[in-house]
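Whether sequence alone determines local backbone shape is best considered at the level of individual chains. When preparing material for the folding task, we compiled for one chain both its residues and its backbone structure tokens. The sequence in question and its structure tokens are set out directly beneath this paragraph.
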Amino acid sequence: MIGQRTAVFLMNLIQDVNVLRPLMFMARRDFGFDVLILMSSKFRMRDMFGIWEAELDVLRRETDARVVVYETDWEAFRELKGSGIIFSGSESTLQEHGAPHSLFRFAPPTFLKVTLQHGFECVGFRQSAAHDLAYGKGVSFGANILCSWQPAEFQPSLARSQWNKVHVTGPTAALQMFTDTISRDPAAPGLVCENLHSVRLNAVRDLKSEFVQTFEDFCDGMDAAGKTVMLRPHPGGQYALKNHMALPPNAVIANAPIYRLDMRRFAYGISAPSSVLIDMLLADIPTAVWRDRESAMDTDNYAGLTEVSHASEWLAFAQEAANRPQPFVELQRKFLADQRVPVDPSEVFARYASIFEAAGRFEPRVRSVPVERQRLLIVANAHLPTVQVCIEHPLRPLIGSGQLLTELLTEPMLRAQMQRLDSVAAVAAWIDRQLDQFRPDVLIFSRYSGPCSSEILGWARRNSVPVIYQIDDDLLGVPRSLGEAKFAYHNDPERVATVRTLLAGSDLVYAATEALRERLNAAVPGVEAVTGPINCSGRVLNAPRAGRARVLGYVASADHLSNLKMVLPAIVGLLDRHVDLSFELFGSIPVPDELERFGPRVRKVDPIADYEAFLDALCERQWDIGIAPLVPTPFNRTKSNNKWIEYSSAGVAVIASANLVYDQCCAEGCGLLVDGLDEWDAALERLVSDEVERLAIVRRAQRKLESDYGLDQHRRQILTIIELAHQRAAAELIEEDA
């Protein structure tokens, strides 16, 4: 039995409200869908004046919708429960449309994904010459259905690969026109719309100043005739308001949403090329397209409509529109008919209704095998901490009970076969036999950069097994500061090529942090990585030790030496001031020469490869304070907060570098965030001297550890990531079949 359907509306750009609003009413009122509004955090940033969030609040009440603001893809994905339909008014491969496009890439197959053409000239549909220069001609979409204003053959920028997705609906503006009867007033003001943020006004030369000057001259002429002019800023650009544009005395701002502005009450409309021109045509008011004096700006898509350039032409048009509007209206109706744009409200309604009806019948076949009954193959360079911390540790209960079967295939295993066997084909055959024998349901490459990745990917593709690339460091940007050995290892051309192959070839890229996700998405075209709130999880293993602080510690590998040296003067000063305090280094990091003079007060604990044994040993060390310094390099900005998790589990108070990954976990008094050597010195002194504060920090941190970074939450996150990989792989198969 099919449960209640949900209609999801993605709010990314300001313009999305106007485009999607009529469909929200259809979803709830006419088809009984639950309504969910997913608002990206970037939408809030773009809504500088709060106009559109207020509009969404009205929509929420009128459609009984639920509104969720999300920062990351992960947060949005968690809201996509059950089945239904997802609408976006700004989804494409363009960076500005990244939030909805990313969500479309990994949305569950139980949802029909629909992208609306949001303007008459719309990237990926019908671009202007300025669009071509700014964005190129390779724009595509992640939707199942493209709601087009015109047939595909009228959309010169629409890739042939997208034609089979096209459903001609016409603009949603036709669904929210005013219908009451009005009497036309020849003395009514005219409406001028500015579109000054548009790329077309900068593509050849700066045309903004010409438009502004022409508008001012026009207002002067209208003022002499005792006429008022209304100026409407573009809802997304808001150029006139953001730039505090000085208005002539007879100019008035009209900034209401277009669906609250009855354009029929204006005597005429003038605008630079913009979709608001279509709104004017639908309102049946005389309309003119502004073109610069040298005709440098492309207006070809509006050929056939009245054009004006100089202020004198604006004035002549305004007078003629007031006196004889009908010839303009007839010209405009012919333009719409020639463009094959459906504009009759009942026809447009019927065309969108067919999509809701299709979503109501949509019953995709979904995999019924629970994630926790699967076989999981992990491919890694070795049994590294990343494998243990990010995968095995949280999944341990399922693995131990036999509910989840795992197998580890490492680079040394593969290289041993490469030495033993005499050909690439023989190695590939060996890989096929191993994978056939284990029969994995999902395959995870854990920060892998070794050989045979293409052969393993090939097996996965042939057997329809989803592939995840899990990564917790920027392996495409490993700096020399980590040491010559690691720099050479990770920057080996073959390893870099493998990383890029797996980033591009996996069904899902699972990044440790949001910063790393953004880095990977920018570095590898087409990659839409996801992340979750947890990379490392834990539980309380030790209570904080009461009494005066006696041991300061740092868990680190050798590649963290530069981070330690950044704070070394503060540590040296602290040891000089407190002769009963000791400092321990746990891991492969060497003891700096500056600490040799402290003798046995500075101790080195060898690294422990097994993660569970490492945690036990960390607790046994009985540290009071743990440090987590990070030099603010691009590489370090993508690091994860593992040290805070491990220190807090062991009852250790944390001091960490501010403005990096530790900001969130250390917030609310769960650690001290510091920036600069003086702050490090003060924070170390503070926790060594103040037992009450140190213990309070640990207790707060351990409460946050269990509530926000617990093993159960981490396990659910990984199972969801696995499920998401299955859904992406299934969606790709559907696209291939289509």
